[in-house]
Amino acid sequence: MRTHFCGLVNEAMIGQTVTLCGWADVARNLGGICFIDLRDHEGIVQVVAEPDNPAYPTAAEVGYEYCLRITGTVRARHSVNDKIKTGKVEVLAESIEILNKSGALPFYNHENPGEDIRLRYRYLDLRRPEMQKTMRKRIALVQALRRHLDASGFQDIETPILTKATPEGARDYLVPSRVHPGQFFALPQSPQLFKQLLMMAGFDRYYQIARCFRDEDLRADRQPEFTQLDMEFAFITERDIQDFVEAMIRDVFSEVQGVELAKPFPRMTYAEAMRRYGSDKPDLRIDLELTDIAELVKSSEFKVFTDWASNEDGRVAALRVPAGATMSRKQIDDNGAYAAKYGANGLAWLKVEDLGKGREGVNSPIAKFLDDATLAAVLSATGAQSGDLILFGAGPWKTVTDFMGALRIKVAKDAGLVKEGWQPLWVTDFPMFEWDAEENRFVALHHPFTAPKVDDVADLVANAKTAVSRGYDMVLNGNEIGGGSVRIHRSEMQSQVFDLLGISKDEAQVKFGFLLEALKYGAPPHGGIAFGIDRIAALMAGTESIRDVIAFPKTASAQCLLTSAPSAVPDKQLAELHVRVREK
Amino acid sequence: MRTHFCGLVNEAMIGQTVTLCGWADVARNLGGICFIDLRDHEGIVQVVAEPDNPAYPTAAEVGYEYCLRITGTVRARHSVNDKIKTGKVEVLAESIEILNKSGALPFYNHENPGEDIRLRYRYLDLRRPEMQKTMRKRIALVQALRRHLDASGFQDIETPILTKATPEGARDYLVPSRVHPGQFFALPQSPQLFKQLLMMAGFDRYYQIARCFRDEDLRADRQPEFTQLDMEFAFITERDIQDFVEAMIRDVFSEVQGVELAKPFPRMTYAEAMRRYGSDKPDLRIDLELTDIAELVKSSEFKVFTDWASNEDGRVAALRVPAGATMSRKQIDDNGAYAAKYGANGLAWLKVEDLGKGREGVNSPIAKFLDDATLAAVLSATGAQSGDLILFGAGPWKTVTDFMGALRIKVAKDAGLVKEGWQPLWVTDFPMFEWDAEENRFVALHHPFTAPKVDDVADLVANAKTAVSRGYDMVLNGNEIGGGSVRIHRSEMQSQVFDLLGISKDEAQVKFGFLLEALKYGAPPHGGIAFGIDRIAALMAGTESIRDVIAFPKTASAQCLLTSAPSAVPDKQLAELHVRVREK
Lengths: 584, 584
Prior knowledge:
CATH 2.40.50.140, 3 domains, alpha+beta, 17 helices, 8-stranded mixed beta sheet, Gyrase A, domain 2, homodimer, BirA Bifunctional Protein, domain 2, 584 residues
C-alpha cells in the first residue's frame, strides 16, 4: 500500500513520486493551502495540497489522527524545519485517500494527559512518538538479549503458565479447574522449579523471556504480571555464571544504549554493602557512605548511642551530608520524618559550621553529650568539613541500616549529589537466612532452593544464623536488576533447608515432593539468575515507571482501563468451574 | 567444571587430557574393567577405568544415571563403535567425581515407557537423546522464526495474560480478582484484539510467540495452553501478508529441516478444496480426488442418488480407490462404518473388475439401478481403471463432503498412497459465515473480526449467506498450520458483523465496546496470521503428538503428572479471592 515510510523521506528522493501511509499528526489550512504532517513509526513528513491540486478537496476534510494514504511528489521545502529528520523536504499531494476518519480525540498526540486517560485510550497514547521510542527500546533490549543467548548455545524453552501453587512467598493467582472440581492451578511466580528440572533433564543451558505473576498489593511500580529473563546453567560455579551474564549485560548496554559499562563490575559482599551504603542494592552514583561510630561513642553520655553501641544487635551510624549545614530546621525535621517511615525513632544531627573551632564551631542538640575527644573522633571518622551536616542513627542493626540507607539516597537527591551515568555492581555472600521475629522462624533471603556455601548438612544446621548462601544480585544505579544463585542439587540438603525454614516434612512433601524426588536421580550441580526486563527497559528508556515499557499495563489497583478487566462473569460460567462468589 | 562436551570428543584430541561432565548412560564391569558411557546433550563417549587406575574404586561404584565429572586422557578405541559420533575414541579415566548419585530408576533411558510414567518423571524422559532431539527441533524452529522476523522489522511485543474474557468461542480459563470482589480475569484464547490495537497504536509490524489458553475438552492432541506465532501488519493486503509469511515458512523449513518447499505454494479456494478433497485443509500428498456425479445420476433409478442430486443443498460424490477392487466385503464395511462416524448413512460401492466388459465387468449392489449410459458416464468421470474400487456418497452437501474427505484420507493411508514429502498450500476465499442450524444464527467461520471481501455494509447484509471473507489458511500435509485474515477496520462494519452474528448491541458494547471505540480514531487497514508452533514443531520432529515438543505438557484430563497440578488449596486462600468451592 505504500512505497516509503513517512519519516524516511529525504532529499535524495526529490522529484520522485511516493505513496505514504500514516496519520495526520497535524492538519491545518494556512493561507488557503492545506498542510498535513503525516506520521508513521519512522517519523513525520509535511504533505502540501494547494488549491489547484486534485487532492485539495480531500485534504481540506482531513482532521487530526485521520488515517491516510497519500501519493505525491517529493520536493524541497521552502522553509527548512530542523526539528524533524525530513525537514528539508515535503510531499506535494497528488491524491489523498482517507483510509479511516477519526472522531474528536480524548487528547492530542502532543499532550501528555493523566495516566488514567492514557491507559484507557492506550492505542492513542502509544501512537505518541515518545511512547513509540520507549516501547521500541524495550523491544531492542529483548532482541539483543536473545541474540546474545542464542549465539551462546542457550535453549529457549517454554514452561507452563497453568501450574502448581508456587512457593516464592508471594500470593498466587489461582485458576479453578473445570475437569477437577475443587482443584486449582496457580500462575507461576517464576519458572524457578521448572528451570531446575530442565537442568536435571539435561538441557545444560536454558533461558526464557518468562511471564511471572504475583498477586501482591501493588506498590508504586509493581505489576500483577511482569517479565523476567530467566536463565539456568548446569555444571557451573557462581563465578562462571556471573562472568557470563556480566558480559551479556555489558554487550547489550553497548549495543542498545551506546553505553560502555565498567569492566569488570565492582563486587561487594552483602555485609560491606549494608555497612557502607545501608542497602543491599547500593546506588554507586552517590558517593556518600555511612560511618560506623559505635566504638567512638560507646562511653559517651548520650544514652541512645551508648545503649545501642554496646548492644551486639545494635548499630550507631553517621552520614555526612556535604555542605548540608545550610539545611533549615524544617528540612532536618523532614528528613527525620522520612527516616521514621523506615523505622527510625529519631534522627540526631550536627552542623559543622567551622571545623577549626572545635566544639564552638558545631551546632547540634547532642554535642553537649559528647566530650571533646569523642566529638573530634566523630568529626574525623566521618571526614567532616566546614559547612557539612552529620546525621546520626542509633537502634537495632537492621533498622538503622535501612533508614540510614534510605536517608543517604534522599539527601543525595535533594542536594543534587547523584552523578550521571551507569553504576553496576555485584553483591554477593548474602546470608542464607533471615530471622523473622514475628513468625519466630528463619526465612530464606533469596529462596528455599539457594545453596549454602557449606556443602555439609551438619555444618549448615550448626551455623544457620551466620550461614552464607551462594546467591548474588546484579545492581544497577540502586536497582536490583538481576538476582540468582547456585541451587541445592542434593535431596538431603534440600530437605534440611526446608526443615530450617520451618517447613514440616509433610508440607515439604505436598509442595515440593516432586523436586525432592527429582533430586534423587543424578541431578547435576546447577545455578542461574533472573533479570527484571521491565525495570531494565525502564532504566534504558529513562522513565521512572515500568508501565511506560509495557504495552498494556494495569493500574495500581490491578485493573486494565482499556478492556475493563477484571469484570463480572455469569454465574453459569462459574458453576462450570465449580466455584461461586462468596457473599460478604 | 569441564573442558569439553562428551559428544564432541574426537580423534583430533587423542593424547589430550579432558574433563567431562554428564550422566552414566550405561555403567558396567567387563572382565574387571569398568566401562562408563558418559552422556551429555551433545552425545555419548566411552570412559574406561582399569584396575590399576586411581579412579577405579569410584568407577566401580557408579550406577546408571549417576551424575559424574571425569578427568582423563583421550585415546584411540580398540574396537570402533560406528553407532556413535565418538566411536573411534575413549577416555581413560584419571579421576572420577560423583556429583550426584541416582536411586533405582523408574525406567531406563533406552526404553520408551508408557506416557503416564514419562510425564511423571519428565526430567528423566527428557534426558533421552530422542527427546532432546525433538525438543531442540522446536527450539531451532522458534529461533529461526524470530531471526526472520527481527530482520524484517517486526516488533516483538508482549500482550497481557491476565485479561478480559475473550470472544473466540471456546471456554475461558478464569482468574478471580482479590482486589475487585466477584470479578475475574480471563486468560487469553489468543492476543487477537491486542494485536489489532497495536496496529491502531502505530506499531506497523508486530509478532509474538504467544501463549494461548482454551478450557476445552481435550481431544487427542490439544493442550490447555499452547503456543502460537502471532503476527499482525498494518497498511497491507492479504496477498502481501501471504507472500511474506510464505517466504518465511519456506526459509525456516530450509534452514531447520533442510527441506525446500514448493515456490510458490499452490493456492486453492475453500470451494475448490471442499469439492476436490472434501476438506478445507487438504493433504496434497494424496492424489485421490472426489468426483461430483450429481448431474450424471440425477435421472437414475437409485433413489438416494436422485433425491440428493436434485436437492440444491445435496451432494453426490464418487471416490476412485486405485486397485481397490481387491478389498474384501469386510474392508468395505469397515470403511462404511468409518464414514458413518462422519455422518454417512451408508456407502455405495462399485468394483471395476474389467473395464472393457462394461456392465459385465463391474461388481456392485447398485449397478442394477444405473443404466448403461449412466454407468459408463460414472466410470469415465471418475477415470476408473480395471481393478479399481469406486465409493459413493450421497446426502447433505456438508455431510457428504466431510465423510468423503475423511474416507479419502483413510483409504489412501490403508493402501499406502500417501506420498513422502511436504505439501503446503494456501486455502482462501472462505465463507464469511456458516449457518448454525441448532442455534439458528450465523457463526463466524474464522472469527468475528475478519473482514468481508465486500467493503459495503449493505452489500454484506443483503448477501450474508454467500459472503466471502478475507480469511486464509496455510495448510501443510493436511494440517492447518496457520490461519489469518484482513481485519475489519471500520466501526460500522464491525457493528454490522456483530449484528449478523446475533450479538446484540448491548452485548457487543459490554464485550467489545473498547474495540468499537478504538476503531473510531483512525484505525489503519490491518491484517495478520497466527501459526501453531506446537503442531509445526511436531511435524518437523516427525512425531504424532504435540506433547513431545512441549517440555511439561498436560494429560488429556488437563493434569500435570509431574507437579500434581491442579490441586486443592486452603479455603483461607479462596476467601481472600472472594470465591468458594461449590458443593455438589
